[in-house]
Structure formats: C-alpha cells, structure tokens
C-alpha cells in the first residue's frame, strides 16, 4: 500500500486508522474524498484571492518563472504515473470508434474544440458537445453506438457530463474520461480513465497537462492509421489551395 510506505507504517496500521474514522477501508475513503472533490470547494472570488496572496508573497519573481516551475514539478510527477499506459488504453478504444466526441464543460471546452479540429485533420470524425439547455439534449440524443466520447472532468461533477456518461453507456458507446479524480462520479465505470493532475499557481489552475494528454491522443491516433492521416492532410491542402484561387 503506497500510503503505508509514505508514512512509514504497516498496512494494518493504515487500515485500522481508516476504519477508526468510520470508513470500511481505503476504497471507501477514496470514494468519499472523490465525492467531496466533485462538489467543488472554493468560489471564484476565493480562488483569485488565494492567487493574489501567493503572487504578492513572490512579488520579486516574474509570474512566468512561477508558471514554469509549477509545470516542471508537475512533469516530474507525471513521469512517475502510469499515464502513458492509460493513454494507450484510451487510444485503443478511440481508434475503433466511428466518431469521437468531446466534452469540456467550462474552460476545458476550448481544449475540446481544438482537439476536435486536430482529429478532423487526421481523418477522424471529431465533434464537440457544447450546447446548453434543450439544444444540449438534442446533441446528446444524436450519440451513436459506434461513438466514443472523451469527457474532460475537473472540479464539480457537471450534470451535462453525467448525462453524456449515462447516454453513451446506455447505447453501448465507449467513454474515456480525462480527470484528476479517477474515483469521482464521472470517471467511475468509464471504459478508460486517464488520470491527469493539473498544476496551479496560487489557486489558479493551469490547463497545460490536460492539453498535453489530448495532443498525445491525437498523435497516437495519427500513428495508428498513417494512410488515413496522410489522405486527410492531402484533402486539407487541396481545400486550402482552392480557397487561395478564389481570392
């Protein structure tokens, strides 16, 4: 048990401590923590306040250096995680999908749109689930059994993400979840979970690690079918040439 090793205690001691808190065991404790994380903890005002406090304490250092150091530390952490294997498992599922949908919910939605564009450029059918209200329900209803959907799930478990999860599983499609909360409501029961922790400066979350995972997925799919990727690139070149001729 990694926890026992980190605190230099026996597995039995850790289990007894967890049980003394009212949990059945470590899985129960992890689930409880994950559900709490799903609920979110700080308001936007509180987050900005923490960030400003952090920046004021390091006012002699440029924000760029704070960001660079934060990413450097996180990259070292990522190299120790089974991230490469998790991405490979996700790519195997995505490679067999007829279409690949993406849902970001909030700031990560921009990453979802960018990834969908890159998927199209390598000959994959990429689309984004991003409408709201009744229009979002229409989008979800359009999911098909041969689809795979990537949900980017951080912070509060959004009702839209849960709806996508329920529907794609109901129709027999594949669900890939990129998250820092693998025991959370969105990730539990997914066909593939890619655990990607985010880094931060103060309490301002940075999204570079998520982008890295998405770009790795696109590159991996490019390698899986070189002919399709080259054909799509050629078609894109031709379309761009036609645009230039009409200028």
Give a verbal description of the structure.
The protein has a 5-stranded parallel β-sheet with strand order 2-1-3-4-5. The protein contains 11 helices and 7 strands. The mean pLDDT is 85. The termini are far apart. The protein folds into 2 domains: 2-38; 78-238, 3-Layer(aba) Sandwich (Rossmann fold), CATH 3.40.50. By secondary structure, it is an alpha/beta fold. Helix 7 (108-121) runs parallel beside helix 10.
Summarize this entry quickly:
The chain has 247 residues and is α/β, with parallel strands linked by helices. The chain has 11 helices and 7 strands.
What are the defining features of this structure?
5-stranded parallel beta sheet; two-stranded antiparallel sheet
Strand order in space, largest sheet? 2-1-3-4-5
CATH class identity of the largest domain: Alpha Beta
Strand-and-helix sequence, N→C? HHHHHHEHEHEHEEEEHH
Number of helices: 11
**Sheet/helix structural class:** alpha/beta
Mean pLDDT: 85
Question: Strands, helices and their partners?
Answer:
Elements lengths: L1 H5 L4 H10 L5 H13 L5 H14 L5 H18 L2 H13 L3 E5 L4 H14 L4 E3 L4 H9 L5 E7 L5 H12 L3 E6 L12 E4 L3 E3 L2 E3 L1 H17 L1 H20 L2
Parallel strand pairs: 1-2, 1-3, 3-4, 4-5
Antiparallel strand pairs: 6-7
Helix pairs in contact: 6-10, 7-10
């Amino acid at each position: 048990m990694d926890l026992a090793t980190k605190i230099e205690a026996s597995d039995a001691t850790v289990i007894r401590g967890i049980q003394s808190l009212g949990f059945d065991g470590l899985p129960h404790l992890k689930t409880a923590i994950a559900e709490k994380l799903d609920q979110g903890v700080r308001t936007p005002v509180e987050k900005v306040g923490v960030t400003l406090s952090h920046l004021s304490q390091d006012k002699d250092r440029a924000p760029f250096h704070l960001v660079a150091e934060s990413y450097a530390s996180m990259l070292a952490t990522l190299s120790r995680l089974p991230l490469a294997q998790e991405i490979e498992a996700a790519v195997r599922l995505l490679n067999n999908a007829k279409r690949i949908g993406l849902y970001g919910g909030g700031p990560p939605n921009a990453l979802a749109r960018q990834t969908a564009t890159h998927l199209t450029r390598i000959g994959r059918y990429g689309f984004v689930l991003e409408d709201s209200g009744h229009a979002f329900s229409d989008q979800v209803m359009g999911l098909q059994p041969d689809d795979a959907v990537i949900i980017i799930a951080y912070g509060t478990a959004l009702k839209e993400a849960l709806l996508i999860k329920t529907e794609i599983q109901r129709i027999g499609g594949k669900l890939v979840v990129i998250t820092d909360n693998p025991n959370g409501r969105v990730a539990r029961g997914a066909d593939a979970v890619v655990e990607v922790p985010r880094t931060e400066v103060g309490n301002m979350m940075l999204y570079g690690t998520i982008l890295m995972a998405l770009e790795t997925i696109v590159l991996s799919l490019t390698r899986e079918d070189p002919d399709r990727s080259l054909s799509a690139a050629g078609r894109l070149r031709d379309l761009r040439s036609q645009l230039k001729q009409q200028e």
